[in-house]
Amino acid sequence: MEYLERRRDQVEDRLVEVLDGVEPGELADQVRHVTLAGGKRVRPTVTVLVCEALGGEPTDATDYAVGIELVHNASLVIDDIIDESDVRRGTPSAWAEYGHGPAIIASDGLLGEAFGLFSADERAMQAVSEAMVELGEGEATELVAQPASEDEYMELARRKTGALFRAAAELGAIAADADAYTVEAFGTYAERVGVAFQIRDDVLDATADSEKLGKPAGQDAEMERPSFVEVTGLAPEEANERARAESDAALEALSTVDAPDSQAMEYLRDLAEFVVVREK
């Protein structure tokens, strides 16, 4: 775990540095509240690990890792407004703490800082821009037409969750100056991990305790938002099997990459396994 902790600490230090540079002070307080309240930092960790798996140094991918975490947190601010969720990571959500207007401005501020970190590389900008288009389409689709079948749910999960995971991995490969095939293979791996993550999230929402989750459980049912369990009619155990299938597909994509075996590759494989058994 020390291996991962060093890389997460490196990302966290750079994240704090970026947020400390935000102006004015009121906006800085808001973006720090959103971003530094906790979080698993899964996406930035993927960025760093992919870069390292391809022979790059962790520092080569740090700014991209911070950037994708900022994009993710910006999206959570909007999710909480849409869902009227007043708790995030065990603390008041941005809109609950500051109001709707300041929360939206904080989301915009996070995106601005993120794109400043991507702007030096055209491929990085393209990867993140495509992910944000997918994310926006997913959010819009869910608002006007909730998924009514497993196929519709999977497409929504690919857009809302898988797309940012894909971008996180692609950014790591881009930071290592990988070829297009390798960027795509890592992107496919991470997208499937993201979908597995979302299915497991729905299972936890239906079965876990709010205190353990760090956010209100039962939100899907309360918001009348179909979760994977509801859409498919599957029992939680069966839904977990679907998540496992996505995890297996992620591992298959990872196996096509021409990269030496390393601690980074081992942790990427472990992540695909972990997302389907996590408890929060």
Automatic annotation (TrEMBL):
Pfam families: polyprenyl_synt. InterPro entries: Isoprenoid_synthase_dom_sf, Polyprenyl_synt, Polyprenyl_synt_CS. One of its GO terms (biological process) is isoprenoid biosynthetic process. One of its GO terms (molecular function) is prenyltransferase activity. The keyword Metal-binding applies. Its cofactor is Mg(2+). PROSITE patterns: POLYPRENYL_SYNTHASE_1 (PS00723), POLYPRENYL_SYNTHASE_2 (PS00444). Gene3D superfamilies: Farnesyl Diphosphate Synthase (1.10.600.10). Keywords: Isoprene biosynthesis, Magnesium, Metal-binding, Transferase. The keyword Transferase applies. CDD domains: Trans_IPPS_HT (cd00685). Belongs to the FPP/GGPP synthase family. This is Farnesyl-diphosphate synthase. The lineage of its organism: Archaea, Methanobacteriati, Methanobacteriota, Stenosarchaea group, Halobacteria.
